[in-house]
């Protein structure tokens, strides 16, 4: 019997655990790495270990780890609908930070593919070398020692040399494993990266003192070859849900003018199931719809998804439930109630403008980039919706010109802010707090005070083990890192949330006192141990006096005048950052 996706994950993790690897949970889709908008590869959470900025023994108790990492690639949104492209996907990977190198990595990969999965390798590729880096003869020799008949192809830098995700970072030659699918096409399923160089910002390379191994194998592709399918959408990760979409559309068929058999094409089905997965996992990781950064990605997905479901005449949120249930067995923190709440709120707001915007769109004879952007700005119709519903009217519309109009609008907005706020694009940027307008500053201020209250609530619920380990606050959310040895229970999260909201309801005054540092410490005020404070510090406290205050911290501000100004406090996500460090993402609303 072919392995289903659940069995593949289980066997992968079991294999590497039995071979001395510590199993590490997937990190969030919202990364710490500033060089990327979302997590795009399994190695991102391990970058500090490859360059010696973090100690794997201290954090994992091992030099070797393995994971199943949630990933999202925004560059593929427009390509989704063919047989290969995805936005969200899962990456199986094993990593070593000096524990082993090429020989063991290739041996593990060969054994897992041929013995555990029972697959036949069609061919492997190795780096052929260039003027900067020599040919990877060692990997070729290792493959030959395992299987003297193995087909080895030599490829250049574009195929078999992995560069850093940003302008600099660890990199090195790769060897890739290819297996045939049911159509007889050779599919690359596993990429083994041997990080033996560091690329500097000027693109020059230097040898790493401790070389490392970074491998990545897409679960979707592995499922395709294990289940002997022609493409990823025929696997158990997609096909059952595609069938559900079709069945629901036929059963409900709210749009009687829509010919389901004719118009619910394979392209549309694949787009719907891909976007449904993306919506579920982005919301689960605390990414909320907005008009910028990761929030814009989830908004684009929801609007594309809703516009297609609207055209089909099917229901929206209910179609996500079976998929949530499918993934909850492995990703236990997926919460359908939260997903449905955020999705329903965003989709209902979009539907109000969708019908009006489509009415305006149908009046037009032709749509170019300028008209398309006006439709977006006036009615919230994204490029994809305009293109999908515009038909022949949009034949001359392309994304590049639309994005150019978008950039022009951003530049005008930025210029307005700079004029208004004395030449600064951000009117507040302390490193921890960031705001680009007066409206954003108000939201950031509310979130900042809420973060103070949350830290105290965490200590009250969990104990004095909790200490701040970092924070980042934008107009969309607060992200607070703190020391704690385990995952919080749903009950503990609820207690923290309830306690913060109870303090907000008390409408306590938020006050500041200025004290010598030594005297401020005696008040019991909290402070971030990694910060260097001056001899005289500000202590912000919530309460009538510092003695009976609910919370008190060293801080530079800004804060609300009274806690009642914060609004409703909501914890969106609680997750691990590293061993002994947890992270909470939270929002406030009226």
Structure description:
It contains 19 helices and 18 strands. It is of the alpha+beta class. It has three domains: 5-226, BirA Bifunctional Protein, domain 2 (2-Layer Sandwich); 247-413, no CATH class; 434-589, Threonyl-trna Synthetase, Chain A, domain 2 (Threonyl-tRNA Synthetase, Chain A, domain 2), CATH 3.30.980.10. The strands form four sheets. Strands 1, 2, 3, 4, 5, 6, 7, 8 and 9 form a nine-stranded mixed β-sheet that branches.
Q: In a nutshell, what does this entry contain?
A:
The chain is α+β, with helices and mostly antiparallel strands.
Described by strand count, sense and barrel closure, the largest sheet is:
9 strands, mixed
Which second-level CATH architecture of the largest domain applies? 2-Layer Sandwich
Strand content: 15-25%
The name of the CATH superfamily of the largest domain reads: Bira Bifunctional Protein, Domain 2
Number of strands: 18
Which helices and strands appear, and what pairs or packs with what?
Elements: H1 5-18, E1 22-23, H2 47-50, H3 56-60, E2 64-72, E3 88-96, H4 102-116, E4 123-127, H5 137-146, E5 152-155, H6 157-160, E6 161-162, E7 169-180, E8 186-199, E9 205-218, H7 219-226, H8 239-252, H9 260-263, H10 266-284, H11 293-312, H12 321-328, H13 336-363, H14 369-379, H15 383-390, H16 399-420, E10 428-429, E11 434-435, H17 438-462, E12 468-473, E13 478-483, H18 490-505, E14 510-516, H19 517-522, E15 536-542, E16 551-554, E17 568-578, E18 581-589
Parallel strand pairs: 1-2, 4-5
Antiparallel strand pairs: 2-3, 3-9, 4-7, 6-7, 7-8, 8-9, 10-11, 12-13, 13-18, 14-15, 15-16, 17-18
Helix pairs in contact: 4-5, 8-10, 10-11, 10-13, 11-13, 14-16, 17-18
